[in-house]
Design goal:
mainly alpha, 9 helices, about 270 residues, globular
Length: about 270
Amino acid sequence: MSTRTAPLGWSARVSGLTAELGRRAVDFVGELGAMSALIIETFQAALTPPYALRGFVAQLDHIAVSSVSIVSVAGLFVGLVLALQTTYGLVRFGAKGTVGIIVGISMVRELGPVVTAVLVGGRVGSGFTAELGSMKVTEQIDAMRALGVNYIQRLVVPRVLGTMLALPLLTLIASTLGVFGGMVIAHYEFNVDYHQYFTSLTNYIRIADMLDGLGKTVVFGLLIAIIGCHNGLATRGGTEGLGRATTDTVVKAALAVFISDFFLTKFFWWLEGW
């Protein structure tokens, strides 16, 4: 009897796992479709008057100004660690003078944009979800619909455009402080002359490198804001559901940044070689 029930139990577990994977795949595709629709609605509303300039300025202040200290500290210490680890390796080959090239390109093209996006995404994206989710749970969104107010234009557009503009500005700050931190640690730990560091930096970093890094952050900002707003507008289940949506936003925003970073890097390298 046991020999008959074992295969049946295994078959039930496999079928249950398959059904769960299928359900998750359907949910994932459904969320992608909903976010894509929200992106289209957001840009349509952004191009339709009246323009929510006051809300845009308020969101820009909330996102950019309030995040400067966090981004500055992170960028500085990322540059310090990067220069420290890199120069230890370069000393073995007698090439410590090239540390400025490595730190500069790494900060400008990759670490500056990604670190800034992850930090701001965790802070701002969860905030968007909490704000819009609270309005959804308390039926304020439904009230705006009943009054004929375009809630996408009033609530989503300023947050999306504000994030897309704020992230490049914050990335400039993080990358600059990271390069400065690398210069300080290279000089005081490994006796790399300031002039040598700065010369190697300016001779090899191109305008295209800076544009690639800043171009990434515009896309990162779009993804972070859309994920945060979508999760907020789709909140269900009261305060408990709001907590789940906020946590979900932090995880999805970070994953979206890392995954899109790979494809954007490939795309910008392709553009440069085209």
